[in-house]
Amino acid sequence: MASPKKGRSASPQGRPGRSLALILIAMVALTGGMFLSGHTTPRLGIDLAGGTSITLRAEAEPGQESAINKTNMATAVDIMERRVNGLGVSEAEVQTQGDRNIIVNIPKGTNSKQARDQVGTTAKLYFRPVIATEVVGAAATTSPSPSASDGATDKATDKATDKATDKATPSSSPSASNTPSASATTQGRAVTDALKADPSASASATPEAEASPSASASGAADTSKLEAQYAALDCTDEAVRAKAGDGAKPEDSTVACGQNAGGQWQKYILGPAEVDGTDVKEAEAVFNTTTAAGWTVTMEFTGEGRKKFGDITGKLAQNQQPQNQFAIVLDNEVVSDPSVSQALTGGNAEISGNFDQQSAQSLANMLSYGALPLSFSEDSVTTVTAALGGEQLHAGLIAGAIGLALVVIYLVVYYRGLALIAVASLLVSAALTYVIMSLLGPAIGFALNLPAVCGAIVAIGITADSFIVYFERVRDEIREGRSLRPSVERAWPRARRTILVSDFVSFLAAAVLFVVTVGKVQGFAFTLGLTTVLDVVVVFLFTKPLLTILARTKFFGGGHPWSGLDPKRLGAKPPLRRSRRPSAPIETKEA
Fold first, then answer.
1. What is the mean pLDDT of the chain?
2. Which of 102, 114, 166, 581 has the highest CB neighbour count under 10 A?
3. What is the C-alpha radius of gyration for the chain, rounded to an integer number of angstroms?
4. Residue of 249, 122, 261 lying closest to 186 (CA atoms)
5. The pTM is what?
6. 377 has which bridge partners?
7. What residues are paired with 51 via a beta bridge?
């Protein structure tokens, strides 16, 4: 009966080889996964690898502060990520910071200017009918009469603007591909002021439904307001241009600015939006080799968008220029204003203008992934060169090496032979940390930044502290007069409780820090929490089993002076069993 009981009690601690084999298998599996994934080094953050960090601040319209909420911020982050990824940028980071800020980290080798335009642009797209337009600085003329519609407009104007040939072509329409008349081509951006010439005619020329008599007064007031805004609009002033059309709803008429192919600014009066960006299913930048248009943006509409686009172009085709034009408005700026001569019902359209490859791809990218639910302004833009990032990484590695060397020196001086166990445990912990960080990069987007390196350096002390707690418990048992092997087993339960409590407090602090902070500080908290968990794994599956095995050797079990467990140096008491031996023979004789 004694042997089975003895076997059950010795089972957990009598087979330390199983624990060592388990952690060895885990290390081999993780290392194999790292090599198979192709990510053999941890992903570096912007401050170590170099790149651009952009801080965007959400701005709400007056009276709409509630629009800045977690849902809209999360939607904005998702759209920004897709936009950046659409540029072919790998390993970019987009994350929220607090309630209003979004941090965008773009690694080196990326066109930061293009990326900045992508992530910060709201990209609210509308197709609005043109009521009136005028080149800023040119003499105003009225829109051409029907009898003159087949001829050229003012020659001076045409000379300045005949380069602006914006198209809206239904590429899927058979007639569009076969006949020139099917394409809707601008005949030049005429200098017009139709609204001033005849406000009522301009209002009726829009593709809106006829207003009822009761609405005439309000329509006249709106027209007067638009007249005043249009007259005061100076599109050459960037500050004025940025505020043009602010607060206008899609169903309202508004004013806007745009730049033609000749580089001149034009101002517009635009009618209510008939089609918006949500009606665009897909957009793509295409180089048009059949015409002189160059780079264009082709759009494919949704089923509903196709109907809307066909209706608006059919109405506009009945009007004279410029009321047969529609403006493609992106974030209150006109990017193109093609004219139409017939209804375009093919479900596809083409935007052409003064595009190069980059601008065409940027516009197509933003149209494909949708508009941001909020407006954002740049708070800060920080660019870190690769050389500076390399210097910071080098400095961090040197600091870690110095910290590790100091810990090893202390362990060797104070614990002697036990320092071998501590150093081996530190190496196992470092290897696991490295492999897991390398795998977490592609898995969850973890990037090793400078604060994360600091967290790894702090973890050296936390891990070493666990070894010290256990070694001191073992030494206490030896001081009580016990030999090494029973001391290792008796010291473990008390040391285990202390280690778990200590690591729990460290992990809790790291978790709280990760939740309440943002940005790079989260890298420190994440690394600290990860290494704390690995400390528990290493102590339980490596340090304790290894000490159990070494306690059976002559060097450690015999209390060699350089083992760090010499009873004489520790001031051990005489064995406890010797004080009980004299009583046993006396009891036997009496019996």
1. 74
2. 166
3. 38
4. 261
5. 0.56
6. 57
7. 107, 384
